[in-house]
Structure formats: structure tokens, C-alpha cells
User: Fold this.
Amino acid sequence: MSAKKILITGGAGFIGSHVVRLFVNKYPDYEIVNLDKLTYAGNLENLRDIENKVNYRFIKGDIVDASAMLKLFADEQFDGVIHLAAESHVDRSLENPNEFVMTNIIGTVNLLQAALKTWNNDSSKRFYHISTDEVYGSVEDGSLFTEHTPIDPQSPYSSSKAGSDHFVKAFHNSYKLPVLISRCSNNYGANHFPEKLIPLMINNILENKPLPVYGKGENVRDWLYVEDHASAIDAIFHKGKTGEVYNIGGNNEWKNIDLVNFLCSLMDKKLERPEGTSAKLITYVKDRPGHDLRYAIDSSKLQNDLGWSPSLVFEVGLEKTVDWYLNNKEWLSNVTSGQYKDYYTQMYSKR
Ligand code: NAD
Ligand code: TYD
Assistant:
């Protein structure tokens, strides 16, 4: 394996931290540069175990700063980019869409421009954009999103991700920038910020707080263990064909209410208390506006062309996740204090 210098953006966040760890450990000859603004969602505690490795470096920076990105690319001469930095939470995008436009669209275009201006048409480079299945909108029962499903985003978050996907494609079509895009389903696992469904429920069960289920809890999501997403990113970065889109998913659909009930009974077991204790906290709350009913992804292109498959069944992955949160209560209390705490208090006082 020849030496490579790779920029990973958003590496202090949930998925990014798993991608950084995988690349730092698996490719000792690579130089991994993690660029992150450290928003409320970015946390260097997620990378404590690898922060002193010789092939790893952290840079605090904002992808919205175009001239800083251009200078970074000119100074560092990266061989590849894996771009995960984003505002990622749908509920926040409903409150403040502008921040999503800035980071997800403008930030992505700044990175594309920096790559274009410093890579001199070198087709061996790779600009890999991490996207989401949410750009496809909602899918009816019995159908799956394929890479050919028309883009039809419904939330400010997914609209901003769809916008960035279009720019990435446009830089390939217009300037032959060697790009890759993947669109993954909902992830779960360690380091997941407790504003998203699974870690929020775990945190609230631990704090004996209500478990807010939106609407009737009938929305369906297709859950993938975060380390399986990281291994798919590894496969696509190294073996994917530039200009292509790859869907990533776990064939693991759950109705929200079934998932929350399953999680409640797992938590009761772990906390050694009577079955049904956590489920008593379930509270149906006002639905999220424009709430997509179902996401379900066909990842056969990735499985057939690149030989990737998910490694963990959901029951095992969820238990590993719960164990991680139970063993990392300090992490939970650190990330739920400060800036996030205010947001959290505000969100719940509105319901
Ligand atoms: P996250 O919110 O946990 O992490 C995002 C990271 O980006 C944070 O570390 C944050 O500090 C950083 N960041 C935000 N704005 C920045 C800026 N302007 N400049 C530099 N860094 C900035 O998100 P995540 O869940 O890890 O998602 C990572 C990527 O994967 C996103 O692009 C998201 O759209 C995509 N994705 C997420 C999921 C999921 O289930 N979480 C599924 C599919 C795709
Ligand atoms: P979320 O984790 O926010 O991911 P996304 O909206 O990107 O799919 O939400 C997953 C599902 O859980 C979604 O249908 C909304 C629902 N949900 C709740 O019912 N209650 C909650 O408190 C949260 C955060 C989400």
C-alpha cells in the first residue's frame, strides 16, 4: 500500500470518529488529517484512543471558510478527501435551516473548489462525499431506494444534503473531478449524539425521563451499525468507481415504536429491573413536521460490485451499543451539558 495523505472532514463526529479510527488503525502508512469545527456534535473524546498515533493529526477548522480550505489544500496536497462534516439533525434543520445551507452546501462547494484548484486534473485523487438515503425522500411499502431513485428531499436537512450531492456530481460532470458519493441509511452505535432516536432513548431511560415518540411511532427506518458504515466507506474509497453513487444499508427495517419497545426491554434487562419499567416512560408527542414515513435501501450494487456486507445483526449491534452507553456515562454527561443542554431544554419545553 503506497503512502497516502487523506483529509477526513467531520472526524470528531459520530460516524467520522469511526471512520478516522478505522483508517488510522488499518492503514499505518497513510497520513490521516481530521478537520473538524467541533460544533456541539463534534467531540475529541471520541478519538482519545488514537489521538497520539503517528499517522494521525487533528486540525480545528470550518469548511465554510473558503480561503482557509483553499490554503489547507494547497499546503497539504491531499491524495484524497472523505467528506463527512455536516449539520446532521433533521429537528435542528427545521429550527435553523440557514446553518444547514452554510455547512452542508457552501462548505461542500468550498471543499470541491479547493480540490479542483489544487489537484490539477490528477485522476488518481478521490473526493468522496458521504451522503444520506434521506435525499430520496420517503419510499412506499414494498419498494426500496436504488441509486436510480429520483432525488426528492423533504426536510431542510435532506434538501441541503441533496444540494451538496448535486454539486459533487456537477464537479464531476463539468470539470472531471474524480468524485464518489455514498448514501447510507440510519446509523447507530457508540459516540452517537443523544439527540438522535436511539441514544436519546437510552439517555432518557437512564435519567428516568419521558421517551418522546413522534406521531404514532409508525415511521420506519433501516438501521445500520456504524462500524459497518465505516467498513463500507473503506471499500468505496478504495474500490469504488469515480463518478458513481453507492447506496449503503442494512436490510434492517424497524417501525420506531417497535424499536423503542425493544430497546426498553433490553435496558430493563441490563439495569436488572422488572420488564416493562422503561416502556412506561414512552410518551407520544406531536409529530415532526413533514416527517418522512419510510426509508428502506437497496445496497445490492455495493454488495455485488465491491463485495461489502454488514457484519452485525441488529440485536447484537444494539446490545453492544447499549453496553457502550452504560460504560460511558461520563461521555453522556459531558456531551449533554453546556450548549446542547440549552437546546434540549428548549426543545422539550415546546412540546
Ligand atoms: P455528526 O453531527 O455526529 O457529526 C458532524 C461532524 O461535523 C461534527 O464533528 C461537527 O463538529 C462537524 N462539523 C459540522 N459543521 C462543520 C463545519 N462547518 N466545518 C467543519 N466541521 C463541521 O454527524 P454524523 O451522524 O456523524 O454524520 C456524518 C455524515 O454522515 C454527515 O454528512 C451525514 O449527513 C451523513 N450521514 C449520517 C447518517 C446517520 O445516521 N447519522 C446516515 C447517513 C449519512
Ligand atoms: P432521527 O434519529 O432523528 O433520524 P432521522 O430523522 O434522520 O431518520 O430519528 C429517527 C426516527 O425516530 C425518525 O422517524 C424520527 C423519530 N424520532 C422520535 O420518534 N422521537 C425522537 O425523540 C427522535 C429524535 C426521533
In short: Residues 97-119 form the longest helix (23 residues). Residues 90, 186, 196-197, 200, 212-214, 219, 221, 256, 288 surround thymidine-5'-diphosphate (ligand 2) (CB under 6 Å). The chain has a mean pLDDT of 95.
